[in-house]
Amino acid sequence: MKKNEEWSLTVERFADQGKVLAKVNGYVIFFKGAAPGDVVRVRTTKVKKNYAEAILLEILSPSPLRVSPVCSYFGTCGGCKWQHVAYEHQLTAKRESVADALAYTGGFQDIAVQPTIGMENPTFYRNKMEFSFSTQRWFTDAEIAEGQVIDRNFALGLHAPGRFDKVLDLEMCYLQSELSARIVNGIRQFAKQEQWLAWDTRKQNGFLRHVVIRQAWHTQDLMVNLVTYGYLPERMYLLATFFQDQFPEITTFVNTCNTGLAQTAYGESQHIIYGSGKIYDKIGDLTFEIAPTAFFQTNTSQAEKLYAVTRAFAELQRTDLIYDLYCGAGTISLFCAPHVQHVVGVELVEEAVANARVNAQLNNIHNTTFISGDMMRLFTPEFVRKHGKPDVLVVDPPRAGMHPKVVAQIAQLQPERWVYVSCNPMSQARELKELADLYAIEAVQPVDMFPHTHHTESVIKLRLRA
Ligand SMILES: C[S@@+](CC[C@H](N)C(=O)[O-])C[C@H]1O[C@@H](n2cnc3c(N)ncnc32)[C@H](O)[C@@H]1O
Fold first, then answer.
1. In terms of C-beta distances under 8 Å and separation of at least 24 residues, what long-range contacts does 9-12 make, across chains too?
2. Mean of pLDDT over the chain
3. What is the DSSP letter of 205?
4. 349 C-alpha vs ligand 1 centroid, how far in Å?
5. Strands 27-31 and 39-47: what pairing?
6. Quick one: what percent of the chain has pLDDT higher than 70?
7. How far apart are the C-alpha atoms of 27 and 307, rounded to whole Å?
8. More confident residue, 260 or 195
9. Are 278 and 252 in contact (CB under 8 A)?
10. Mind listing the pLDDT tens digit for each residue in 209-262?
11. What is the location of CATH 3.40.50.150 in the chain?
12. Residue whose CB lies within 8 A of the most ligand 1 atoms, among 301, 309, 348, 379, for a mutation test
């Protein structure tokens, strides 16, 4: 096979990062934009020894697994790249990705992977969305075809895939709620009418940078956090009047000021314009306080299922000491704490640890200890001497997985029960391979935290071999 060759192929399956995979005489070709079962024409762009990459030129015959994407921005917006595939098949593909990682990366044969736990209604599932302002509006094909004269210098929505500067002006989004989309449209209209400028990432000037909407799943709380360059109180009070008039559903309005160059929703100061500056949501019986920058799982209803699986896999006993490593804001710790003697949570980000402590207090939970620090440095024999040897280990590391020193320390520590929660089945399988002589895999449960994306959460129950 050579570069720039055209091939007609049948797509076999989804591959890593939401790409698809097809084969020519056993040789693998990866490309984007198709669905398993599609017959396509592609052109190779990169040819390596074991695989090639290609671009999709044409769909010759669409797959029976295809469905019409619900969102009109599909294909232009990078948010929900799997909307063209039936949700049932998305769940199957996620289960396969976990099974493949265990078989091919982990070298584990004959491991039963349970069907992915999905959502009954896989739309409007996020409790937090961050929208960006831009002076460079990205147009959809339909907008270009319509050829209307549109304001190019102001957009509020989501970034076009791979573009830090261009933003798609979203009028509807199926990720958060219909109300959230209306609020975004209201802010856009108001800001344009008041002639407030959007932030220009190239010139580094302007006023409006981001809107973060946090909407509780189990309560009526809704926070709008407007991120601006500098604090202009009279403007904020004007916008507050507009919100109170048009969107009484907004329970609190916060203005974060970011005069830094980094285009983030964090800033050097925060002003509560009205309300308490926080929202409250529930996971199971627990209540969580969520401040503008607090850590919280973005899919509340699936987080409940994920934590229930994690807790069941841990087979908790009243006398147990649990280590919850990479604990974020301590949600798993707090979910398990009422059933055990003590939980020790470790997390890098101090603010998340502060959230964990607040939430422990809020729920009257007094048998948790949260420690902030880097697992690689903190997780030592001294740490274990100080806090005690755990009966159960729960780990939920970031995508890259655990540092080799942490894996080595687990091999030393050898807790009897271990639950490994991961958002990257490949790094999970790689690490479990290293400990395969010590730990047996007893159950594997994928959970879909992000419908219509390739992201897969995998929960694995492990037990120390006799
Ligand atoms: C997947 S999240 C865990 C989320 C948490 N279990 C929950 O359900 O909300 C991974 C966490 O690991 C933390 N983290 C990343 N690197 C770390 C390190 N080297 N040491 C400790 N924590 C780390 C991140 O800040 C993040 O909160």
1. 9/39, 9/40, 9/41, 9/42, 10/37, 10/38, 10/39, 10/40, 11/35, 11/36, 11/37, 11/38, 11/39, 11/40, 11/63, 12/36
2. 94
3. B
4. 8
5. unpaired
6. 99
7. 40
8. 195
9. yes
10. 999 999 999 999 999 999 999 999 999 999 999 999 999 999 999 999 999 877
11. 92-121+299-464
12. 348
Cα 254–153–74 angle (5° rounding)?
80
Token look-up 């994690």 returns 310
- Written as six digits, the tokens of 163 are 């573009």
The binding-site residues of ligand 1, defined as CB within 6 angstroms of any ligand atom, are: 297, 326-329, 331-332, 346-349, 352, 374-376, 396-398, 423
**d(C-alpha 88, C-alpha 98), whole Å:** 16
Residue 83 has pLDDT above 80, yes or no: yes
Do 457 and 124 form a contact (C-beta atoms < 8 A)? Answer: no
Distance CA 100, CA 98 (A): 5
pLDDT tier for residue 41 given thresholds of 50, 70 and 90:
very high
Write down the pTM of the prediction: 0.92
Orientation angle between helical segments 425-434 and 404-413, nearest 10 degrees: 50
Give 439-465 as a DSSP string. EEEEEEEEE-SSTTSS--EEEEEEEE-
Query: pLDDT at residue 151 above 80?
Result: no
Architecture of domain 128-283: Beta Barrel (2.40)
CATH of domain 92-121+299-464: 3.40.50.150
Domain with CATH 2.40.50.1070 in the chain: 128-283
What angle do the packed helices 178-193 and 233-246 form, to 10 degrees? Answer: 130
Give every CB contact of residue 104 below 8 A, 6+ residues apart in sequence.
none
394 alpha carbon – ligand 1 mean position (Å): 12
H/E element holding 384? helix 381-387
Closest CA to 124 of 299, 305, 294: 299
In which band, very low, low, confident or very high, does the pLDDT at 306 lie, cut at 50, 70 and 90?
A: very high
- Average the pLDDT over each of 17-26, 217-226, 360-369, 436-445 and give the range with the smallest value: 17-26
Give, in words, the CATH class of 6-61: mainly beta
What residue spans of 230-291 are helical by DSSP H? 233-246
Residue identifier of the C-alpha nearest atom 9 of ligand 1: 328
Known active-site residue 327: no
d(CA 21, CA 313): 33
Q: Where in the chain is the domain with CATH 2.40.50.140?
A: 6-61
pLDDT value for 165: 79
Highest mean pLDDT: which of 11-25, 72-86, 178-192, 259-273?
A: 178-192
